[in-house]
Write a structure and sequence with these properties.
It is a single chain. The chain has about 425 residues and is an alpha/beta fold. The protein folds into two domains: about 1-195 and about 385-420, Rossmann fold (3-Layer(aba) Sandwich); about 210-385, Glycogen Phosphorylase B (Rossmann fold, 3-Layer(aba) Sandwich), CATH 3.40.50.2000. The chain is about 45% helix and about 15% strand. The protein has 16 helices and 14 strands. Helix 8 (about 235-245) crosses helix 13.
């Protein structure tokens, strides 16, 4: 089949959705499908970095469109980048031939609408792969008011895309409930969790040693938060714990990544003159085994108001390290589901700084035998239940195969025009 993937980011951008889209594209291409990706030509975090407009990557055709490059300086600059991308995406789609299946991701927010309209005008079956739920998330974090005219319009567009898509991919059962509340039918929905993006399946025994040595962390107990510093991942509890433990010289809180909440970390360090906090930029995919392996204790964060709206996909990479972790988030969430099935981690509520410190101390006291039990339990669980191979096969069996054999249904008016040409 001819399959078109729509996402604002793709290879070689290092952000998580770019890597997941890359894995999906290569998997589909390996299954014998003809795969085209339409994406943005700018790096998601560093907007001044541009990629080639056309590229063939291991048999996958990449077509990149432009946008403004103002970045995340404000909500309005983000909207401007998204809207200019959407306009040029529409022009690019107009020039594409019909496709059998169009898979739309969720960045930027209106991209799913263009996928649906393309299928209606040119033929094909629409699939929405929801990495988050908007405008609900924007409302939950305060970017939009629930009763505003902007929210009403965006909500109507979102429900239009759901209603006119053959398949909807969500990441967990909590997101499935949110989507059904928007009118999606159970038979439309497939749960396909994301997967660890590390290139290894079993961490080497010395994973992280070189990274700790490079960054002067050899003799430290490293508490690691690695990933997007987003507004949906409040870091207050973690930062308050860093302040409380600033006199314990053997503990270092390491933050790796970009995002709006990087400023929260920097400001806390400056205000409290913290020497126990380090900040590093995102690491390339090939270095993830080293950077993630540097953590003795990993941190995963989910905001209370966004459970079911976003998904803490970084938890799979954490599990793949085999290291203990603390999940800071609500009990009714996917993070809690994972801990119920694989109890080699800890959960604390937002604001429960004492509970967080107690869990941290408990990890410091684990014996080598206990650490090995945690490592084997977490690694076995994630590779058994959340490997890339398993998730991609679920996508193929629950989404692609049911749509196989359904050729693009080009509207009669378009067919007549094509015939006239």
């Amino acid at each position: 089949m001819k399959i078109l993937l729509l996402n604002q980011v793709f290879y070689p951008d290092p952000v998580a959705t770019a890597q997941h889209t890359r894995d999906l594209a290569l998997f589909l291409q390996g299954q014998g499908h003809s795969v085209t990706v339409v994406t943005g030509n700018r790096n998601y975090e560093h907007r001044h970095i541009k990629y080639a407009r056309r590229e063939n990557y291991q048999g996958v055709e990449i077509r990149r469109v432009s946008s403004t490059g103002w970045g995340k300086r404000s909500f309005f600059t983000r909207i401007a980048d998204a809207l200019t991308f959407d306009l040029l995406l529409a022009w690019e789609l107009w020039r594409l031939p019909p496709q059998d299946v169009v898979v739309s991701f969720t960045s930027p927010p209106l991209i799913g609408l263009f996928g649906v309209l393309f299928c209606k005008l040119r033929g094909g079956k629409s699939v929405q792969w929801l990495m988050d739920v908007n405008p609900d998330t924007a409302i939950a974090v305060g970017y939009l008011k629930a009763d505003s005219w902007v929210s009403r319009i965006l909500n109507a567009i979102f429900e239009f895309t759901l209603h006119h898509s053959e398949k909807i991919v969500v990441l967990d059962r909590w997101m499935r409930e949110k989507i059904m509340a928007h009118g999606a039918k159970a038979e439309q929905i497939a749960i396909v969790p994301p997967w660890p993006v590390q290139s290894f399946e079993t961490p080497p025994p010395n994973a992280g040693q070189a990274f700790r040595r490079e960054n002067g962390l050899e003799d430290k107990f490293v508490v690691l938060y690695s990933g997007n510093h987003s507004v949906v991942h409040p870091l207050d509890t973690l930062l308050q714990a860093a302040v409380r433990l600033k006199e314990e010289k053997n503990i270092v809180f390491l933050f790796i990544g970009n995002g709006l909440r990087v400023n929260d970390v920097t400001e806390t360090v400056q205000r409290h003159q913290l020497s126990n906090v380090r900040q590093l930029p995102p690491q390339p995919r090939e270095r993830l085994p080293e950077s993630l392996g540097a953590g003795h204790l990993h941190i995963v964060v989910m905001g209370n108001r966004v459970s079911g709206l976003v998904h803490a996909s970084k938890i799979y990479g954490v599990l793949a390290t085999g290291r203990p972790y603390i999940y800071i988030g609500p009990k009714e969430s996917h993070g809690s589901d994972l801990l119920a099935e694989c109890p080699y981690g800890f959960q604390v509520e937002h604001g429960a700084v004492e509970d967080f410190i107690s869990a941290l101390k408990r990890v410091q006291q684990l014996t080598p035998a206990e650490l090995e039990t945690y490592a084997q339990g977490n690694l076995d669980y994630v590779m058994r239940c959340y490997s890339a191979a398993k998730s991609l096969q679920i996508f193929h069996s629950q989404v692609v195969e049911p749509l196989a054999g359904l050729t693009p249904t080009v509207p009669a008016k378009t067919s007549k025009t094509a015939a006239a040409r």
